[in-house]
Specification:
By secondary structure, the protein is mainly α. The protein contains 6 helices and no strands. It binds heme C. Keywords: Electron transport, Heme, Iron, Metal-binding, Signal, Transport. One of its GO terms (molecular function) is electron transfer activity.
């Protein structure tokens, strides 16, 4: 429990720092989608943080296996509605989202759903303690992120 508490504290501090920096560098405070973009980038970073933490355990053997379920359940929750983070027109001002998202919305939803399903599959394996499945399901998850970034995120 102590580790979890420390992890949560560390995450909040990091988030507060990021927010502080973000606010300081804001130029287009009046832009309609700015807050939305900040929010979705924050969610994506949270997703990325959980994936990085899981990789440290599953791939590199960090001894935090007891925390895996926390990370996978967060991933499932955060991936629930990725398309909802991308309202039409939110390709401006400061974003790496490509315009193609709104030209190819169905594909974007499909790829988002692949990530949700991959996160659910990994979560199910962790809940069942089915360690033999962790590596492959984690890899599938990573590939699902990559597939969307390849098409819809600027380098
Ligand atoms: C359906 C598409 C899609 C999926 C699936 C997806 N992403 Fe993203 N991701 C994006 C887009 C688009 C951006 C750029 C958002 C922006 O800059 O406004 C992004 C940005 C990011 C960022 C950078 C956030 C920042 O600080 O600007 C990280 C980290 C990230 N994604 C991690 C992940 C991980 C890890 C997964 C899989 C578990 C994932 N993403 C799944 C589309 C996706």
């Amino acid at each position: 429990m102590k580790n979890v508490a420390r992890l949560i504290t560390a995450t909040s501090v990091a988030a507060a720092l990021t927010l502080g920096l973000g606010a300081g560098s804001t130029v287009h405070a009046f832009d309609e989608h700015e807050a939305t973009i900040d929010y979705r980038q924050g969610v994506m970073r949270a997703i990325g943080g959980n994936v990085g933490a899981i990789a440290a355990v599953v791939v590199d053997g960090a001894e935090f296996g007891d925390n895996l379920e926390m990370h996978t359940s967060q991933l499932v929750a955060l991936s629930q509605d990725i398309p909802g983070l991308f309202p039409e027109g939110s390709d401006f001002p400061d974003t790496d989202a490509k315009e193609e998202i709104w030209d190819d919305w169905e594909r974007f939803e499909e790829l988002s759903n692949d990530t949700l399903e991959a996160a659910e599959a990994l979560h199910a394996a962790v809940e069942a303690g089915d360690e033999g499945e962790y590596a492959i399901r984690f890899r599938n998850l990573g590939q699902s992120c990559q597939a969307c970034h390849d098409d819809f995120r600027r380098e």
